[in-house]
């Protein structure tokens, strides 16, 4: 009986809407709390106030939520109109970074607005998914062979990757490559062609690593960050991330009581926030975080499968692939099973540009759910207008 109840809950269409909404807000709230905890020491030292960084995150969250609500009300025709210009706008943003951008921690991928720095490549990720979804849907309707669309989409993504790599940001470039791979996979590209494309991507990644001594060291050290000759060099971040996670136990040392954030763990509020969660909230906190992320991804992919319009299906799937691979890379770096690539944990890490971009995607998927007749009917029956 209990198995049947669980199956009913997870398969009932309207519950996918609630799961998407609940997990997004839950992760955002968790992120706000943990950004404050992880950044307070650094913020006090660099900004003069323990609240400076979390206040910025809060402002971006306050802007992102109503923005997602507006996007969820967009018609499919409006999304298709926006999608037509997704590639052009993305390239424009990435070129602008190279012209007037600034470098942060060796990556030239930021634009300073004076009061805050923004990362246009985050918005470009969503716009490229939107454009690629539009192109794949157009191909599906026309019945053209998949290889034709591959010739259009792959070079466009390759251009984005080249522009990002011009700023030495291998992490973001890897995300773009993985988004492309995910989109081509869900589009049904023939396995042989997909394998060739994947092999070319891996060759490019290998070349990017081997041509940079810094990246080679990052890649070599992740399996043993405590090695005597690397611990105080490239192994420092992954080693102290592991120390934080190991000291958390089942329930953590207590919220705000992390020791690693006191100068030992660089980027504690961005790339390594998962380690702070593990240290302060313990195994319970990390499992809760993974559970929320799993619910989020499950609801996105299930809603994608329910979509009748092919563009909605491709864009929602691409958005899910983006969040999934970024989660894997971030947590993989934190637990030292992957090299440190410098990507944030979706909705949890500090980053206004990332928060806005991911909420754009959430707005799209929520809109897709609202256009589902079964889901919309049940939302109307609740009597809460803001839900629908």
Automatic annotation (TrEMBL):
Keywords recorded for this protein, A-Z = Cell cycle, Cell division, Cell membrane, Cell shape, Cell wall biogenesis/degradation, Glycosyltransferase, Membrane, Peptidoglycan synthesis, Transferase, Transmembrane, Transmembrane helix
Compartment annotation: Cell membrane
The record's EC number reads: 2.4.99.28
Q: Which InterPro entries would you find in this protein's record?
A: FtsW (IPR013437), FtsW/RodA (IPR001182)
The first-level EC class reads: transferase
State the pathway, as annotated in the record. Cell wall biogenesis; peptidoglycan biosynthesis
Q: Which Pfam families does the UniProt record give?
A: FTSW_RODA_SPOVE
GO biological process annotation, one example: cell wall organization
The reactions it catalyses are: [GlcNAc-(1->4)-Mur2Ac(oyl-L-Ala-gamma-D-Glu-L-Lys-D-Ala-D-Ala)](n)-di-trans,octa-cis-undecaprenyl diphosphate + beta-D-GlcNAc-(1->4)-Mur2Ac(oyl-L-Ala-gamma-D-Glu-L-Lys-D-Ala-D-Ala)-di-trans,octa-cis-undecaprenyl diphosphate = [GlcNAc-(1->4)-Mur2Ac(oyl-L-Ala-gamma-D-Glu-L-Lys-D-Ala-D-Ala)](n+1)-di-trans,octa-cis-undecaprenyl diphosphate + di-trans,octa-cis-undecaprenyl diphosphate + H(+)
Topology relative to the membrane: Multi-pass membrane protein
Cellular component (GO) terms are: cell division site; plasma membrane
Transmembrane parts of this sequence: 16-38, 50-69, 81-100, 120-137, 157-185, 191-212, 233-252, 272-298, 319-341, 347-369
Q: MF terms per GO, please? A: lipid-linked peptidoglycan transporter activity; peptidoglycan glycosyltransferase activity
Tell me the PANTHER family matching this sequence: CELL CYCLE PROTEIN, PEPTIDOGLYCAN GLYCOSYLTRANSFERASE FTSW-RELATED
Q: What is this protein called?
A: peptidoglycan glycosyltransferase
- What species was this sequence derived from? freshwater metagenome
């Amino acid at each position: 009986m209990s198995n049947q109840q669980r199956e009913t809950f997870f398969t009932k269409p309207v519950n996918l809407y609630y799961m998407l909404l609940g997990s997004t807000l839950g992760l955002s709230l968790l992120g706000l709390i943990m950004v404050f905890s992880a950044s307070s020491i650094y913020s006090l030292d660099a900004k003069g106030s323990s609240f400076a960084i979390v206040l910025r995150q809060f402002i971006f969250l306050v802007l992102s939520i109503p923005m997602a609500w507006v996007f969820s009300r967009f018609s499919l025709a409006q999304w298709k109109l926006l999608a037509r210009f997704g590639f052009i706008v993305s390239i424009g943003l990435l070129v602008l970074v190279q012209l007037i951008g600034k470098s942060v921690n060796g990556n030239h991928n930021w634009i300073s607005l004076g009061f805050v720095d923004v990362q246009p490549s985050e918005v470009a990720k969503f716009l490229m998914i939107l454009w690629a979804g539009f192109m794949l849907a157009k191909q599906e309707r026309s019945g053209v062979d998949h290889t034709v669309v591959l010739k259009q989409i792959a070079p466009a993504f390759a251009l984005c990757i080249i522009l990002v790599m011009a700023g030495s940001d291998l992490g973001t470039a890897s995300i773009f490559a993985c988004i492309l791979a995910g989109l081509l996979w869900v589009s049904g590209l023939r396995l042989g062609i997909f394998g060739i494309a994947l092999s070319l991507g891996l060759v490019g990644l290998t070349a990017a690593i081997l041509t940079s001594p810094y990246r080679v060291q990052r890649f070599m050290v992740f399996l043993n960050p405590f090695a005597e000759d690397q611990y105080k060099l490239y192994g420092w971040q992954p080693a102290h991330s592991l120390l934080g996670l190991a000291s958390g136990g089942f329930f953590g040392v207590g919220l705000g009581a992390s020791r690693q954030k006191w100068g030992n763990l660089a980027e504690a509020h961005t790339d390594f926030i998962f380690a702070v969660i593990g240290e302060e909230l313990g195994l319970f906190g990390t499992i809760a975080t993974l559970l929320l992320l799993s619910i989020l991804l499950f609801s996105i992919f299930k809603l994608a499968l329910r979509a009748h319009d092919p563009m909605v299906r491709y864009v929602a799937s691409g958005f899910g692939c983006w969040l999934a691979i970024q989660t894997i890379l971030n947590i993989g770096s934190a637990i030292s099973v992957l090299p440190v690539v410098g990507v944030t944990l979706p909705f949890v890490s500090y980053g206004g540009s990332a928060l806005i971009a991911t909420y754009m995607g959430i707005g799209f998927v929520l809109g897709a759910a609202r256009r589902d007749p079964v889901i919309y009917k049940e939302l109307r029956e609740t009597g809460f207008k803001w839900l629908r």
